[in-house]
Amino acid sequence: MALLTTTSAVAGPGRAETCTAARGAVVAVDFGPFGGDVVRGCDPAPTTGYDLLHEGGFGTAGTEHDGPAFICRIGHGSFNGGARYPTPAQEDCVLTPPANAYWSYWTASPGQDDWSYSRYGAMDRRLKDGDVDAWVYGGTGRPGFSPDDVRPGTGGTPGPGTPTGAPGAIDVAAAAAWLESRLTDGDRVVPEGGDTPDHLLTTEVAYGLAAAKSGPALRRVTAFLASHAGEYAYPEGSGGAPDATAAARLALLASSTEADPRDVGGHDLIGDLSAHVCAAGPESGEPTPGCTARGDFRNAGYTDGQALSVLALLRAGVTPAAEAVRRLTQVQCRDGGVTSILVRPGEYCDGDPATTALVALVLRRAGGHDDAVAKARAYLAGAQRQDGSFPGYTGATTGAVHSTAYAAQALRVLGDGDRADAAVAWLSREQLAGGGFGFEEGATDPALYPTPAAVLAGTGASLVTLTTERTGPTDPPTSPPPATQPPTSPPPATGPVTPPEGAGPDLAKGVAYLTGAALLKQGRYYTSGPGSVRADFGLTIDGAYALAATGLSDGRLRGIVDFLDDRGTDGEGRTLHDWTGIGTPHVLGGSLGKAALLAETVGRDPRHFGSQDLVAALGRSVCAGPSTAPDRSCAAKGAYTYTPSVFGQSLAVMAQLRAGETGAAREPLAYLTALQRDDGAWPSLVPATDDSDVDSTAIAAMALSLAGGSAADRAVDRALAWIASQQLPDGGFPGAAGNSVNSAALAVQGLSLDASAYTGEITRARAFLASQQNPDGGFNVARDGQRGSDLRASAQAVSGATGISFGTLERDLTGTSPQPTPGPGDGGPEIVTPETVTPGGTGGAGAPDIVTPGGPGGGYGASGGKGALASTGARAGLLAVLAALMVLAGWRCTVLARRRAPAGGEW
Q1: CA of 885: how far to CAs of 513, 874, 890, in Å?
Q2: How far apart are CA 608 and CA 388, in angstroms?
Q3: For residue 492, with 0-12 CB atoms within 10 Å meaning exposed, 13-18 middle and 19 or more buried, which class applies?
Q4: At 848, is the pLDDT very low, low, confident or very high (cuts 50, 70, 90)?
Q5: What CA–CA distance (Å, rounded) separates 700 from 22?
Q6: Of 503, 509, 426, 396, which is closest to residue 739 (Cα–Cα)?
Q7: CB 621 within 8 A of CB 667
């Protein structure tokens, strides 16, 4: 390991010795690739990861294209006089650096001695006391030192103390009553706005009712599940391999209710699970569908499915294959946590408390793995917060109900009764008035998924021990349930969207958030950072897509389009074309495609958008072959220049196809098609990486669907099947930020290409999006991430919830009024078109509002009203005269204060 040095040469709060293990946050930067040491600094009052670097004495530089938010160079006064690396000779920092030569960002929370790759950029990561950050150059691996190596003090991280907090007990009867109230026809869960039963949630409810000894309701639910076992657990038909997770859930329910898991709806769940343990994984070189590695239960996919399958066999008196049990130890991380994804041995591992607790319970029941159980127990003790709760994932700063409930179950069995009691007491304080539980700390809306787990914790039970006396027959119903009906028509390509009430997020509120004056400034959004005057053109186009998809604010959409088309400038004098690089040696094909696609969406001419021919430039950006280092402009033949992602490739392909350039798009389309993996998924990056990404798969499917043809249709079918297989129990989808809003929204768009086949998945995903919408109308980044509305996630959530593909999205702006496009030095009042966003409305053009630059506070986003006059004296008098003249002319005026809000990066 390289020598660790502190920032002792730096005066003031950046000195590492001013922080302690419990006070302040620490950052360590490894200058090893440039001949230096690991240098650390700290911030005694941490705010963001970006500020931590600077308060710790480091200097940074961003890229010319993305601004300071994308950290391209880092330096420190203790190394080579503060020179920032990589040097300009090593990396020009004009565009985003390649994936094998950039500063990767790693984080660790208090009590954790293993690194997790950051889900957030440095400007967006919010820190707390005890956090540790690390920056490593190269992009090829994790830090070569541990968090404890760089924490203040020589004794490492203090051992976890016993949590404090008032004792409490869960009202099990109230929770069970709430669960019963959520059943449709008294025997199944049907998501709001849908007509397809959610078998997974129905099974979860059954566990809760079994723990609460709710006999009559439990009998009805188990009868329904038994009669639908084939539909739930055997998607390939009775002759194929079962969905291991579904089969295991049903088998555990049967064992818990004294039924026979070998005869559930005529299916031998135990025999079928035992018969479908993978003999090998992809490393064998042979096709192994549904297998990640040897010992997997076929089609398990996630660690909970593997663990539940092992437990189902154990509870049925069957000894599971040793390899199947050993697989649970192979997904245990170095810090003792267990990752939720059934990764291959040796792959990147990031544990979470809920999965760790479940695996600890199962391994203890299986026996023979005491070391793994002890490590999991220590991990859980370290992850428990002082109030008794557990976070949902590494780095989360609030308690999560599901994680806390599972941890309580495991800790009680493992002998940590005091910790289990503290966890249950925290759960009792989170129980809502109606009896249910929300997903996380402070939630105000109850949800089905976390509530049953809390009931089990409240009764002292777990899936290992859950049992109840059989109080009656479990014969299936004499009449079948209503058949699931597909939607009568696919989502509309144009016209205001009117989804069923309660079926998904509130699009009107979402649009109001996106168009609030605090965020949308004269037709554009701004990048993160205090006082930023740099427009985020990629995010601005994202917002335009969302407005086009809903049809709820055509005036604001017109304002964005006019700003881009009229070559409007931001505070740095940059236009759309500075972002796309058109006319320069660094043309970004994906960005060109994104801009051209917007023009096509709203009926503008992409061949004359912003006085440039985007279509011709896009054609010229198609690579004839891979470039030779150090030139990294072209990944392969058919790729677009400086387009490092499948997302950008797909947007550019759709732009060319919509422009009628089928010949020019032939090679890019062929390259995109070739990137599809055998399992139907696409990777995230270009050239292809060894990952499978929901977002990229969804956007690629939209591009191929637009292209059409039998081969493309088959590729789309495989892609949609893979996307559906990735859906999480709560309806969300995994993404870079965890259980991601962005990924769920794109999954809805992708699955809506064949809406009739994926009605249930779409309904659950839209319900998940609704659960992540905040009172201000915006959306969280992820279920278990930092709380608070994020502009980029909100734009994608609103757009995706409509289900309209980017390949067919259209919005007619005829009848809307032109919008002014001031330059960066314009000191006059900002004039924007007023609108009232209403469901089904088109946001017609009215008279302009006056927005006073530089005014304090106020604004749509701040107060929900129209604000007040923000200036005084002569300037206020001038505005008052102008307002009076406008009122006399039949115009309505309002003076709003300008306030910048953080945005994010760009695609």
Answers
A1: 30, 17, 9
A2: 60
A3: middle
A4: very low
A5: 46
A6: 396
A7: no
Q: Is residue 37 classed as helix, strand or coil in its secondary structure?
A: coil
Q: How far is Cα 267 from Cα 618, in angstroms, rounded to an integer?
A: 56
**898 three-state secondary structure:** coil
By residue count, the chain amounts to: 907
Please state, in angstroms and rounded to a whole number, the distance separating the CA atoms of residues 767 and 749: 14
Q: For residue 372, what are its two tokens?
A: 């793994």
Of 890, 906, 901, the closest CA to residue 859 belongs to 901
3 state SS of 172: helix
Tokens of 810: 């259209």
pLDDT, residue 597, reads 97
Cα distance between residue 646 and residue 236, in whole Å: 30
Report the mean per-residue pLDDT for the chain: 81
Longest dimension (CA), the chain: 86
Instruction: Answer yes or no: is pLDDT of 299 > 90.
Output: no
- For the chain, state the CA radius of gyration: 28
| Cβ(539)–Cβ(887) below 8 Å | no
For residue 11, what are the contacts with CB-CB under 8 A and spacing of at least 6? none
Residue written as tokens 């690739």?
33
Higher pLDDT pick, 785 / 246: 246
Helix (H) or strand (E) holding 62: strand 58-63
Task: Say how far apart CA 410 and CA 417 lie, in whole Å.
Answer: 10
Q: Are 681 and 722 in contact (CB under 8 A)?
A: yes
Locus of tokens 């009042």: 829
Structure tokens at 212: 């609460």
Rounded to whole angstroms, how far apart are CA atoms 324 and 318? 13
Q: Under 8 Å CB-to-CB from 747, ≥6 apart: which residues? A: 694, 698, 723, 726, 727, 733, 761, 765, 800
Q: What's the pLDDT tens digit per position in 79-115?
A: 998 999 999 988 888 888 887 788 999 998 887 778 8
Bond preceding residue 86 cis, omega within 30 of 0: yes
At 160-216, the pLDDT tens digits run: 556 867 789 999 999 999 999 999 999 999 988 788 899 999 999 999 999 998 888
Contact 411, 419 (CB under 8 A): yes
Residue 466 · residue 210 · CB < 8 Å: yes
**Residue 309: how many other CB atoms lie within 10 Å:** 31
By the 8 A CB rule, do 46 and 32 touch?
A: no
Strand partners, 831: 850
H helix or E strand, kind and range, residue 38: strand 38-43
- What is the per-residue pLDDT across 5-22, written as a single tens digit (0 to 9) for each? 443 333 333 444 578 877
Cis omega (within 30 of 0) on the bond before 687?
A: yes
Percent of the chain exceeding pLDDT 90 equals 54
How many Å apart are CA 670 and CA 666, to the nearest integer?
6
Which pLDDT value is given to residue 496? Answer: 53
